[in-house]
Specification:
- The complex is a heterodimer of chains A (about 350) and B (about 270).
- Chain A has 2 domains: about 180 residues, D-Maltodextrin-Binding Protein, domain 2, CATH 3.40.190.10; about 160 residues, 3-Layer(aba) Sandwich (D-Maltodextrin-Binding Protein, domain 2), CATH 3.40.190.10.
- Helices cover about 40% and strands about 15% of the residues of chain A.
- With about 270 residues, chain B is mainly alpha-helical.
- Chain B has a single domain, classed as Orthogonal Bundle (MetI-like fold).
- Classes of the chains: A alpha/beta (about 350), B mainly alpha (about 270).
- Chains A and B meet through strand 6 and helix 14 of A and helix 3 and helix 11 of B.
- Chain A: InterPro entries: SBP, Sperm_putr-bd.
- Chain A: It is found in: Periplasm.
- Chain A: Keywords: Periplasm, Signal, Transport.
Chain lengths: ~350, ~270
């Protein structure tokens, strides 16, 4: 018993020392309650130099925490106990967070430089008038292929995925909206379709894709494409940018008949402690030089029109990431379909997964 | 004194109620609600009518059966030989060792081994065979699942064989049985308890394996776990997810009943 008490006391003492040390460390880094700006972002989703620059310009100390999925971020903020001053969710999650009153309504008088953003990326259905969010990056869903196995031009449309030449060589992303959406798009329908006949036809068409499907996976696509495990994959442009960087044989194609247009936007959660810093950061990121620097570092497409002008032409002329207006015209943002239709999309997707060759 | 003993059960009873019984009741309760929050049997109707879910249940059973079968085929001889070896503890340690490593890490290791440029294919090309698609096939899924479950099958069988009274075997030989007869009539029936608990420990978790189905099976193998995950995380149709959960629980109870020890017979031992 004595020994147990001693052990318990020891553990408590160690914990005490660690807490104290942590406190001291935070102080040494200049993190005190008043001037900290706590940013909750995707991993490696901002140029670290910009954080330093922001700290120098404004005197705030940035505490950078990362998440790896919208759902994880949502759960953490929803549970409370956090005081993130800023988060970067994707559009469907923003819509949900607005519905659940988790976001701070933006005071547009405090925001400078919103007119730097391309008009077509503002006032979108998930956040009318940008009351809650400011565009950070945008992208598409498309097809990535390896030129060692696929000839250039052989894949240009969703329809091409069904070609018998690609038997057992296509990897799909594990998302019901994405896969049902591409099937709908390939038939000329909207990816937000709520027409039962169209959905049934799209699901029926997907069954014919089964012989070509190698696997339905998620983040692993990146690794598999870089290692040339598969010759074709359906993936998001953001992921594609990282793949292209790692393997020069890879190419990204945006089917021009229509695809998903996605956004990651900056929002201020209700629980934010330092809103002043959040506005300072929004304004900082809206400045064309900063947005351009960030876009060059991350490789995603920036919605900042002025920033695009500052960037090298080889990037902004690249149709893979800055598609032509003609292609852009056919793209659609996911609308919230309501629980019933999300269920229908997912049931069809589940049936597709179960369909055997 | 008697009261004191009862007190020892308090923490465990609490644990049982809070983390076993309450969640099960919640799942059952939840399964009666559709997405509009009405109290109905709709989810059960969907389960039986859609075909998709029934097929998925059969799929799950089939794969769990195959995994259990392969594990048993490998584990029984291993456990049997283990009881005959000199350094039992060392061998046992080597068998248990892989269970200390996280399942996810093992799955990723197998991705490396089975991929197009992986070790397995390098070996094949060394033997003069063109690289094969190994990852994302039924075979690779069954292989990895079996590999992961093997320790859980070996241990109970090994324990049952260890407990076996050697004088029974001597008696069998004295009475004129040859070694095959001894094994068939004495050793195997007495080790059945170990086999049964091994089957329980392997079959039940195999029913709902869903991470391996994605990582190794590439979602070409679909089990009930996949559907439950989807209903809770994507469609947020907790009612349907719970309904599938209820069937999973029923399946587990059935397995327990079928493989459980029958009290009356056991008493003779």
């Amino acid at each position: 018993m004595k020994r147990l008490a001693l052990l318990g006391g020891l553990i408590a003492a160690v914990c005490g020392v660690l807490i104290f040390a942590n406190h001291q460390l935070n102080r040494a880094q200049g993190i005190t309650s008043g001037n900290t700006f706590s940013l909750y972002n995707w991993g490696d989703y901002i140029d670290p130099e910009l954080i330093t620059k922001f700290e120098e310009e404004t005197g705030y100390v940035v505490s950078y925490e990362t998440f790896d999925s919208n759902e994880a971020m949502y759960t953490k903020i929803k549970q409370g106990g956090t005081n993130y001053d800023m988060a970067v969710p994707s559009e469907y999650m923003i819509e949900r967070m607005i519905d659940e009153n988790m976001l701070e309504e933006l005071d547009h008088t405090q925001i400078k430089g919103l007119d730097n953003i391309d008009q077509q990326f503002l006032d979108l259905p998930f956040d009318p008038d940008n009351q809650y969010s400011i565009p950070y990056f945008w992208g598409t869903l498309g097809i990535i292929y390896n030129d060692k196995f696929v000839k250039e031009g052989e894949i240009q449309h969703w329809e091409d995925l069904w070609k018998p030449a690609f038997a057992d060589s296509v990897m799909l992303i594990d998302g019901a909206r994405e896969i049902m959406g591409l099937s709908l798009n390939s038939m000329g329908h909207s990816l937000n379709s709520k027409n039962d006949a169209e959905l049934a036809a799209a699901a029926e068409k997907l069954d014919h894709l089964t012989p070509n499907v190698k696997a339905i996976v998620a983040d692993e696509i990146k690794m598999y494409m870089i290692q040339e495990e598969s010759s074709v994959a359906v993936t998001f442009s953001g992921e594609a940018a990282e793949m292209l960087y790692e393997n020069e044989h890879l190419h990204y194609v945006i089917p021009n008949e229509g695809t998903n247009l996605w956004f990651d936007n900056i929002v201020i959660p209700n629980t934010a402690k330092n809103k002043e810093a959040a506005y300072a950061f929004i304004n900082f990121m809206l400045e064309p030089e900063n947005a351009a620097q960030n876009a060059e570092y991350i490789g995603y497409s920036t919605p900042n029109e002025e920033a695009v002008k500052l960037m090298p032409e080889e990037i902004t002329e690249d149709e893979q990431f800055y598609p032509s207006d003609e292609t852009m015209k056919h793209m659609e943002v996911y609308e919230n379909l309501g629980q019933e239709y999300i269920g229908i999309y997912n049931d069809y997707f589940l049936e597709f997964k179960m369909h055997r060759k | 004194m008697k009261q004191n003993k009862a007190l020892y059960f308090v923490p465990y009873t609490f644990w049982l109620i809070l983390f076993v019984i309450a969640p099960i009741l919640l799942i059952i309760y939840q399964s009666f609600f559709n997405i509009h929050d009405d109290f109905t049997l709709e989810n059960y109707q969907t389960y039986f009518q859609s075909g998709t879910y029934l097929k998925m249940t059969l799929n799950s059973f089939w794969y769990a059966f195959l995994i259990t079968l392969f594990t048993l085929l490998i584990s029984y001889p291993t456990a049997y030989l283990l009881t005959k070896t000199k350094h039992k503890q060392l061998w046992l340690l080597l068998i248990i060792l892989p269970t200390w490593i996280n399942l996810l890490l093992k799955a990723y290791a197998f991705i490396g081994i089975f991929s197009m440029n992986g070790t397995a294919n390098q070996f094949l090309s060394f033997m003069g065979i063109a690289p094969q698609q190994i990852l994302f096939t039924d075979a690779s899924f069954l292989f990895v699942a079996t590999y992961i479950e093997i320790p859980f099958m070996i241990l109970p069988i090994y324990n049952a064989l260890e407990e076996l009274n050697p004088s029974l075997i001597s008696a069998s030989y004295d009475l004129g049985a040859n070694s095959w007869q001894t094994f068939r009539r004495v050793v195997f029936p007495l080790s059945l308890t170990g086999v049964k608990s091994g089957v329980q420990a392997v079959f039940i978790p195999s029913l709902s394996l869903f991470m391996l189905t994605r990582l190794i099976g590439g979602n070409r193998v679909i089990t009930l776990g996949t559907a439950i995950e989807q209903h809770f995380l994507v469609t947020e149709n907790w009612g349907m997810g719970s309904t599938i959960g209820v069937f999973l629980i029923i399946a587990m109870v059935l397995t327990m009943l079928l493989t459980g020890e029958k009290k009356k017979k056991g008493a003779i031992r």
